[in-house]
UniProtKB/TrEMBL annotation:
Protein family: Belongs to the TAF10 family.
Protein name: Transcription initiation factor TFIID subunit 10
InterPro entries the UniProt entry points to: TAF10
Keywords from the named record: Nucleus, Transcription, Transcription regulation
Protein function: Functions as a component of both the DNA-binding general transcription initiation factor complex TFIID and the transcription coactivator SAGA complex. Binding of TFIID to a promoter (with or without TATA element) is the initial step in pre-initiation complex (PIC) formation.
Source organism per UniProt: Papiliotrema laurentii
């Protein structure tokens, strides 16, 4: 009877704890085998099943990315132009709180000459928003001042909370937040 582990009767059986040799050394022109995957000599690297392009191939993809970004920028600019055009059309029918005559007077006084009424209304609307923001901030500072000093004076707090008086100090603090210096000098000469 023959031994099932040996193929030749005269050859000695191969030891079982010996592992087959690792993959043969790859030369410079042969592809390398890493984790069962073949990497060519073109410089691509395969890690975790994903192949990263070589620097030469990355440069080929760069124009694609720049064209994508350029297309997105153009779409964004077109959207902004459409929204500006729609806003200017809306200004045709808008009547701001500051009358057009007052806006025109102050624009002429400052040297601004424009015949487009929509632009004048836009400037009037921006002035209205600026005044609204200032008054809201000044009211906030006045409430902080009233709530902070009411408890220390010995008066009932409920009486003073209903009465908020806007002072020049509150307004100058609000103007200071918007970059306008409206404080009086400390000394008059």
């Amino acid at each position: 009877m023959s031994n099932p582990t040996s193929t030749n009767e005269g050859a000695s059986p191969a030891p079982q704890n010996q592992q087959p040799s690792a993959q043969p050394e790859a030369g410079p022109s042969e592809p390398r085998h890493v984790n069962g995957q073949t990497n060519g000599t073109d410089g691509d690297v395969t890690m975790n099943g994903e192949q990263a392009p070589s620097p030469d191939k990355a440069e080929e993809q760069a124009p694609d990315l720049s064209s994508i970004f350029a297309a997105r920028r153009e779409e964004e600019m077109a959207r902004k132009d459409r929204s500006l055009a729609e806003f200017l059309v809306m200004l045709d029918n808008y009547k701001p709180l500051i009358p057009d005559e007052v806006t025109e007077y102050y624009l002429q006084k400052s040297g601004f000459d424009c015949s487009d009424p929509r632009l004048k209304r836009l400037l009037s609307l921006s002035a209205q928003k600026f005044i609204s923001d200032l008054s809201r901030d000044a009211f906030h500072f006045a409430k902080l001042r009233v709530n902070g000093t009411a408890a220390g004076r010995g008066r009932p707090v409920a009486q003073d909370r209903n009465k908020v008086v806007l002072t020049m100090d509150d307004l100058s603090l609000a103007l200071g937040e918007h970059g306008v210096n409206a404080k009086k000098p400390d000394y008059y000469l």
